[in-house]
Amino acid sequence: MRRRKCLPSQLASQLGVSHATVSRWLSSKDIPNIRSCQRLAAYSGVPSEKVLSIAGHLPRVAEKVLADWPEFREYARQMYPNELDEDLITMIEDLIERRRQKRYGGGNYKMGS
Fold first, then answer.
1. 37: in domain
2. Helices 19-26 and 8-15: crossing angle, nearest 10°?
3. Most Cβ neighbours (<10 Å): which of 30, 37, 48, 57?
């Protein structure tokens, strides 16, 4: 959103979801559904499978992604320097953290731990 200089309401409009939905994603109160993950993937340039796995819709891939991407922010900056802005990276990191907490019993499992 920062890179594109748009507000959450503008992102919501571009993705075809409500402003309230984007607010829930940003505040970690909800995760995107499958269709929204596909739209986020198209919007950000990240493969749909990766976004779906981060959101927890593809558990087997999520396990592999968690093991392969201990430091997602650095990976994203290297692999997608023009496609992912800080807001999307943060949103994806939040999804990764929530998935890890769900998978590992709700503890404070940190990236790279």
1. yes
2. 110
3. 37
Structurally, the chain folds into a number of domains equal to 1
User: How many CA atoms, within 13 angstroms, populate the side-chain half-sphere of residue 31?
Assistant: 19
Residue 108 pLDDT exceeds 50: no
**Rounded to two decimals, what is the model's pTM?**
0.52
| Cβ-contact 99, 54 below 8 angstroms | yes
Which residue pairs, CB below 8 angstroms and at least 24 apart, start in 53-58?
54/92, 54/95, 54/96, 54/99, 55/31, 55/95, 55/99, 56/31, 56/95, 56/98, 56/99, 56/102
State the Cα–Cα distance between residues 18 and 23, nearest whole angstrom. 9
Nearest 5°: phi and psi at 97? -60, -45
The answer to whether 45 and 80 have CB atoms below 8 angstroms apart is: yes
In a domain, 91, yes or no: yes
Q: Does some domain include residue 6?
A: no
- Domain of 59, in residue numbers: 32-103
Using one digit for the tens of pLDDT, what is the confidence trace for 14-25? 899 999 999 998
